[in-house]
């Protein structure tokens, strides 16, 4: 049985909706209330009504809720021809054209190339699909409910596979040469292009190339585990056959060596009060995080070499430039609200030794990641924040500046992202990185093509 396969996807009928840009959305987990409202107003058939339907007054647990409304929209749009089923099974070539200046200091234009296909499911640790981040029960319960009532997967997972020569992608590029793509531009200005490839000979060649390759989940861990849970539910009902579509999930496959493969940082704005990762409220004593640069250095002790390099929120740009240029996981920029100063902390030998003790259940590579050093060594061990409110995660240095200016956050951190090679090697060791270790930009669109699993 092939690990990937073509499928008859469901897509928008452009003759009914007009511009594809008006109906597609980013993934549900990056849509806040303001952006959700924007998409609701943008077009009556916008995909947000299915993938992230609003909670309404009077909702109940059975017949009238966000999931049943999503199912009704989906059923109605299919019946009305707003969305249609592909005539033949296809592999969907998917390009994303973007400018790094949108999330960093550079302005180089990239094109990330991949393809959408069904990927055979296997539980993590049981096959050739590897995770790299932890998951949370609430997010999986939400996605499972939507899958159960619609029998459809609406957002693809993002998988990386080793292919130094980009053999698989180049095979598909030959198949689409000279053909007109379906095009959408998202709210961030990223251009998304899609080509359905229905040639069965191309499918056969692609399957042969991809068959032995491992797949590393870059984004969409909750959706992948949800797909496994849904498959198990279908199995419990006695309806699961070897060819049932619930055996598969919708996967965006990108070669690790693709020239457009960019990993961006996720910086942190720390607070003393708010929900923890499990949703429970947490409040820390102000003294644990509200420090001067001098007090911070004292707490870090001989575990880090520290130096004050700048003052004021705006200096974040210069601090990040220095850290990014050094390209060392062990260098972290820390802003202390109490005196408005920026400190660059570089892990020392004593810090590595203490990290080995504090995180003995992990390997050396995991312990050397910037995000691991920040959360496990600095926040938990040296500052004593065993349980803390979930920080605000941001990607732009300008967002760090804006957050620091509000005075809301006693500490901010600029931290290097894990690399694609880190993802591969740590995943193969059976470990998972801390949350938000990577930010694979840009996000995949939801609504370009969806995968029926019922």
Instruction: Note the main sheet.
Output: 9 strands, mixed
| End-to-end gap | 19 Å
How many β strands by DSSP? 23
Number of separate domains: 2
Strand content: 15-25%
* Computed CA radius of gyration, to the nearest angstrom: 23 Å
**Class from secondary-structure proportions:** alpha+beta
| Residue-averaged pLDDT | 94
Number of helices: 16
Shape: globular
Uncertain runs: 102-106
- State the helical fraction: 25-40%
Structure report:
The chain folds into two domains: 4-262 and 441-452, no CATH class; 266-416, no CATH class. It is globular, with a radius of gyration of 23 Å. Strand 15 and strand 16 (281-283) form a beta hairpin. Strands 1, 4, 5, 6, 8, 9, 10, 11 and 12 form a nine-stranded mixed beta sheet that branches. The chain is of the alpha+beta class. It has 16 helices and 23 strands.
Summarize it.
This protein is of the alpha+beta class. The protein has 16 helices and 23 strands. It folds into 2 domains: 4-262 and 441-452, no CATH class; 266-416, no CATH class.
